[in-house]
Design a protein that fits this description.
The strands form three sheets. Strands 3-2-1-4-5-7-6 form a seven-stranded mixed beta sheet, with helices on both faces. Strands 11-10-12-13 form a four-stranded antiparallel beta sheet, with no helix packed on it. The chain has a two-stranded parallel sheet with strand order 8-9. It contains ten helices and 13 strands. By secondary structure, the protein is α/β, with parallel strands linked by helices. The longest helix has 17 residues, at 82-98. α3 packs parallel to α6. It has two domains: 4-197 and 301-309, Vaccinia Virus protein VP39 (Rossmann fold, 3-Layer(aba) Sandwich); 216-298, no CATH class.
């Protein structure tokens, strides 16, 4: 029987592109029409559906790997912060799922923002279908929920790791920090080793040192320049130089103004934003400019996805840690 990799909240294909670099494919579950159109144009398999309503029973025994990046707007510092008010309800949802009770419908009605409870969906899928491995990604404020999930997964035989990774440490031209949860029943899990550092490291007896972070100028082929972030405003904003990695991209990057030496200030294009998120320059972004930047800002950088997935995809001959 063929076993599949399922990508929850698949978005435009960050995880999928990471898998493609490793010679693998997934099936994405995604509800947003523009993201589904982008995935289709990029050649990624997709089921358009609500992850929270999709049944898990048909997937049992058919899934080798589970990926998940639940919508982060309610937990993001760029959002309204409703997730902070709902965090206790999310912890309750995880406890209830661990004890075999599905209270999502009741808890959802109590949430300030119903989207907050989407953060518990990966545990529902993991407990119901028992994949060999799990890889989840979210904004750093969700790390306590990942710690909670990890404790539950260890009780049913998974080795787990939870922590924060900086995309710049893995060659991505962006200082994007995100929480990750890795779990496996076939190997002792650990985070991917960093390949880059803020300052280049010299060669040692153990081999070459880490390379310097990839700069925005290098990624976009600029000789100089920088970005003024304006959010939704026409003036003000902060500024960073292209001589280092870009700041973290969100949907608001559609308002970033790019200044290049001897050229007028202009808007950052979706293609450029995609490159800073480590997508190919010809990636087929679908939808309006707003929807394109929303997809880009929400996606996992493919290079970081590939680094993370490389730690769980192939079994390693290491003893599995026994949960305490």
């Amino acid at each position: 029987m063929n076993r599949h990799i399922i990508d929850l909240f698949a978005g435009p294909g960050g995880w999928s592109e990471g898998l493609r670099r490793l010679g693998r494919t997934d099936i994405g579950l995604e509800i947003d029409a523009a993201a589904c159109a982008t995935r289709a144009a990029a050649g990624h398999h997709t089921i358009r559906t609500d992850v929270a309503a999709y049944p898990t029973t048909p997937l049992a025994g058919k899934v080798s790997g589970l990926i998940g990046s639940a919508p982060c707007q309610t937990f993001s510092s760029a959002g309204l912060g409703a997730g902070g008010d709902d965090i206790a309800l999310c912890h309750q949802g995880l406890d209830d799922l661990a004890s075999g009770r599905d209270t999502r419908a009741v808890l959802r009605t109590a949430c300030v923002d119903a989207r907050s409870l989407l953060a518990v969906e990966p545990l529902r899928y993991a407990l119901d279908i028992r994949p060999d491995w799990v890889a989840l990604e979210e904004v750093p404020s969700v790390e306590p929920l990942f710690d909670h999930m990890a404790r539950v997964l260890r009780t049913v035989g998974y080795s787990t790791w939870v922590g924060i990774l900086n995309a710049a440490d893995h060659g991505i031209p962006q200082t994007r920090r995100r929480a990750f949860l890795l779990a496996s029943t076939t190997r002792q899990v650990a985070p991917p080793e960093a390949t880059h550092a803020k300052a280049p490291e010299p060669e040692s007896l153990f081999g070459p040192g880490r390379a310097a972070w990839t700069t925005m100028a290098d990624a976009l082929g600029l000789s100089s320049g920088g970005v003024t972030t304006r959010g939704e405003h026409t003036g003000g904003g902060n500024r960073f130089t292209a001589a280092g990695p870009a700041w973290t991209l969100t949907g608001r990057a559609r308002s970033w103004k790019l200044s290049i030496e001897s050229a007028p200030e202009r808007e950052l294009t979706a293609t450029e934003a995609g490159i800073l998120q480590d997508f190919p320059a010809d990636y087929p972004w679908a939808g309006s400019r707003t929807k394109q930047f929303e997809q880009i800002g929400n996606a996992v950088p493919p290079g970081l996805a590939a680094a993370v997935l490389g730690t769980v995809l192939e079994p390693a001959h290491l003893p599995l840690a026994v949960a305490a």
